[in-house]
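Help!! Second protein's tokens look totally different from the first
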Amino acid sequence: MITYQLEPDLTPAEFIDVLRRSTLAERRPVGEPERIAVMLQQADVIVTAREGSLLVGVSRAITDFAYCTYLSDLAVDEAFQRQGIGRELIRRTHEAAGLATLLVLLAAPKARDYYPHIGMQPHDSCWIKR
């Protein structure tokens, strides 16, 4: 049985572990635990999914709780994908940030087809600067 909770004190080690068990580690600084720690400390909403004590999914968001929520990380262990965990993490993250906020995310290349499936709409004017 999967349990969900707000977990603001998620440890960098657990976060890195689930990133590696998902495909998100390819695009996150998992070799820099100090940077990961700051990412977690500065997040406004962290929702976890666990099977027992095992972390199987996580969402991490930055929000103003009024207008905009940026869902910066959504990771689900590959062994637990296709069970609705990602959808539930998104729902709970949006709920925690405030349903009046606009939920925004950048899709990982392998996940581009997932988001329309759960009712999210693409936006054609996202810009990034590295």
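Here's the second one for comparison:
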Amino acid sequence: MRIGVPKEIKDNEYRVGLTPSSAVELVRRGHKVVVERGAGLGAGLADLQYESAGATLVDGPDAIFKTAELIVKVKEPQPSERAKLRAGQALLAYLHLAPDLAQTRDLQKCGAHCIAYETVTSPEGGLPLLTPMSEVAGRLAPQVGAHCLERQAGGRGVLLAGVPGVPAAEVVILGGGVVGAHAATIALGMGANVIVADRDPEALRRLALRFGNSVRTIFSTYAAIAELAKRADLLIGAVLVAGAETPKVISRDMLATMKPGSVIVDVAIDQGGCCESSRPTTHSNPTYFVDGVMHYCVTNMPGAVPRTSTFALNNATLPFVHAIADKGWRNALRDDVHLRAGLAISDGRITAAPVAKAHGLALTPVETALGL
């Protein structure tokens, strides 16, 4: 199979879909890997490394989109890339379609078979291709929040750890899944007082077993979140409903009660964000204020640490890329119910129920699309 790896063009996105070591694995299996020149430079991966791996380098994305049978990306295709996708191609990337009607419509029109990393499942019930980036984003969130709380950045001027005689900052994490647990790990390590809220009692039990009394846990209700919002110096949104638009758990009314100069880091922004006041931002313009509260809503947070993120992503995605390359996308999905869960759009038909529901569009069951 001919596998194409274009350079990411989203704002300050330096991750790359395949590392040179991943390219070696695919070339050794008899596949042709074509990489856009400079695609890996932001992650410290030189063109020479790809050439040594047996990949072919090309200038610009056009040759890749015209000839590749499988496109391996990181972030969702941008409008100019969506215009280059063609019928019959397979696309592997984070798509986050539920809050993005424009992208959904474009991917329907192009006729490609679009597999979303974020909804591929595992036998254990997890999301193996979302997990590594959730781990990175979770660990970044307190670090980013700590910087935003500095006065010169526009925040309250609060040090997460405090000092003897001065209390540590209150960090409230909404969601006790992968992002929330990793955010709690780093926030604790930075010396903050940490509270995690979740609606799943089992998630709260897991956090209690992991952190003991170091992290306070609370069952998430509207009233509980309203009180936590008032206390927070830093609020981290880590809410996830797989494949669906994120519920808005922080209302504008709650926002008005938060401390002036407090910070919201909405890690859930890829799926629409968990605050009514959240809107997507970029690494080049990451923050804005609403009612005196700073919002950090960068949609590709792991892109800030592209080398770590690229290797973590490739560790998870490579077996699935192997399967698609070896068998073809259709047979790979027929053979693997977990990879099948990632199919979002195929030949113009929406096959992901949360995406169809979010946009009020017709759903084609994935089994029908695959002829099962």
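Reply: Different proteins will give different token patterns, so don't panic. The chain has 15 helices and 15 strands.
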